[in-house]
Structure formats: structure tokens, C-alpha cells
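seq:
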Amino acid sequence: MEITTPQRITTFLMFEGDAEQAMSFYVSLFDDAEVVSVSRYGADGPGAEGSIQHATFRIAGVPLMCVDSPVKHEFGFTPAISLYVQCADEAEIDRLYAALGEGGTELMPLGNYGFSPRFGWVNDRFGVSWQLNLPA
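struct:
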């Protein structure tokens, strides 16, 4: 008899040296957040010694994975894929927008866009795209 596990989809973020810094930053911003597991490259590579070979973390209860790719790529993150956050109140959306936007790029400033009384979209300093929403 074959035992199967339920299919799961997890967001996977590939960095080129910033994985630990990004993961720690995200965990510091959200409730129900923690680093679950980390494995690092050793002295024999292929990545830089001590960099993230694979890590799993949770933010707002949602699991994510990340790595530091030892291979340089011609691509990075794109806003075509973003992490969408439903905020509980105005203080939370303001705090997250300010923190995630620091050193990043503002795509849509916080405002009322008709579909939401308060919405904002930023690429953080690591290039990851975040849509922040305060529902009506």
C-alpha cells in the first residue's frame, strides 16, 4: 500500500547572499513568526561557507523557504509575484509599509484605490514584492 502525503505549495525565495538577513527581517515584522530550520553551506561549498543552503521559516503562520544560491543569475524577484498581506488595522499597515519600504521601492503609496480603503505595494530592500491591504 502506497502512503501519500497531501500536496502542499510553499513560497520559495532564492537570494544571492541575503537569505539570512531577509528571513530574520521578515520574522521580526510578523506575529506567529519563527525560523523553523536552517542548513548552511560548509567549507567545501558549493555556496559561501555559512550561507543558507536551505531554510524554512514562518510568518503570520505561513511557511516559506529560502536559499542563498551559489550561482549568480541574470534574474531577480519581480512584482508579478508578490506576498499579499491582509492587515488587521491602520497601525499595522502603516508599520509594515514603513518597514518593508525602507531601502526598497514604492510601487503604490498607501492610499484609497477604490477596491480598498487603504492599500500599498512595495518592493523591499531584498527585492521581494509586498502588497499590503486594510480591508473595509
